[in-house]
Amino acid sequence: MAHPTVAVLERHLHLYRRLWRASVFSSFILPVLFLVSIGIGVGGYVGEVGGVDYLAWIVPGVMASTAFQMAIGESTYSVLGDFKWVRAYHAMRATPVEVRDMVAGWLLYILLRVEVAAVVFLGVTGLFGALRSPWAVVTPVVAALVAVAAAAPVTAFAASIDNDSYFALLFRFVMIPSTLFAGVFFPVEQLPEVVRPLAYLSPLWHGVELSRAATLGAAPPWPAVVHVGCLLAFAAAGLVWAVSAFRKRLQD
Q1: Which spans are transmembrane here (predicted)?
Q2: Class of residue 119 by CB neighbours under 10 A (exposed 0-12, middle 13-18, buried 19+)
Q3: pTM
Q4: Cα dist. 86→92, 148, 163 in Å?
């Protein structure tokens, strides 16, 4: 018999096997098209940023933001739906599956989704000559850290609410501003000093800076261990919150 965490992972993968076609465009094709249009098209007008061409500069940001957006998007309606409409988690609770297995199995599923997309994206960008350092091979690991740092707290949030209208607020006031002002498209240093701390509070900024350091072979603005530590802190806090939220929701 499979471990309960593995059983939960298998359940999500089984469902995804029936739905994967719907995610191909957003997970694989759209980031590449975005990279070509912005990195090459707009990059022709921007020129260089930080001494490198705009395509090479924006690649790590697009990869990190793709992981960030995938993690958030997958952790909203899917989690709430399995509680409120499908009641899949209630069914799991009637088996030997523990709450921690539900959360761990779900986050493993998110990791697999993000890692496949990251590896494909990395291969495509390599064909464009946008990778300037052999350290670029560690960017999928950074994408995994960003994914867990985003997915864990959002999963907890989705398990804590009963109305999906809150997701519009999450997308509008968290995901979109983080994507726009976390150094994906332009250096955070160009923001007013009073606004920069808001960028530093986003896990995406830490992921972008780590990815950019890896693909360009340059040191990140903060020590790498600090960036990694911040991402792990987001992930750990979200994991604790998610387990607590799942347990409370299943007792209702």
Answers
A1: 19-42, 54-72, 106-131, 137-159, 166-188, 224-246
A2: middle
A3: 0.92
A4: 11, 24, 15
